[in-house]
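Human:
Focus on the backbone:
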Amino acid sequence: MSLVNEKAPVLSNRQVGPNLHLMEVRSPEVAAAAQPGQFVHVRVPGMEAHILRRPLGIYACDAEAGTFDMLYQVVGFGTDRMTSLGPGAELEVIGPIGRGWHVPEGARRALIVGGGVGAAPLYMLACGLSRAGVAVTAVLGSQTSAMLVFNERYEQALGASPLCSTDDGSFGHAGFCTPLVEQALTEAQEAGEPFDYLAVCGPEPLMRIVASMAAEAGVPCEVSMERRMACGVGACLSCVVDTVGGKRRACVDGPVFPAEEVVWP
């Protein structure tokens, strides 16, 4: 399917955590075509002087209703402007864009690791795997319990509570989520039921560490690489990722890459 470029009306836009907002927009074509791990490139109304669009991961889709959700963190002028958009406002959206998650054929057990807002681009994957009968373990980490906004939806999708950590110890494991990842990998190996696939999205240091853990355990791993994007369609080369095969474009060759292909800084 070719890319959709259309005006997408905002249906809702609400704060769900500290500097975290959930926006639902109507775009039947994007909602019907989007695959887990893909994103949309958004032009925010009222920012005509700003040429660059904002790449935002697709959190969830409802193809029947023709809607999709985006969870975004307020980090600058553009995302701050987005918080003021209520029902009736329109975004100019290009999408769905990019290479999403590719689960090995025949996978029976999967480990999903989301750090911070990195849990959002993994949610559709978790839902799809669960519906396909794959046993999914989710590890989610955040700075504080107030920012751990994904628990309920993940629990509903998987029928089990995610393993959670918070940097400040306000919920779950105190500290980074990497010990929980190591624990899950070890327990699966010892039980004779190792994971067939691991997907991780979050801060780059987290993805590098988790990718190393997966390699040591012999588990195929994919990572979602976030980059600043100017065009979003592979023309400008502003979002390159260093890989063993040379420089690749995060927007069209990714954002999801096999972890063993990434050259980490």
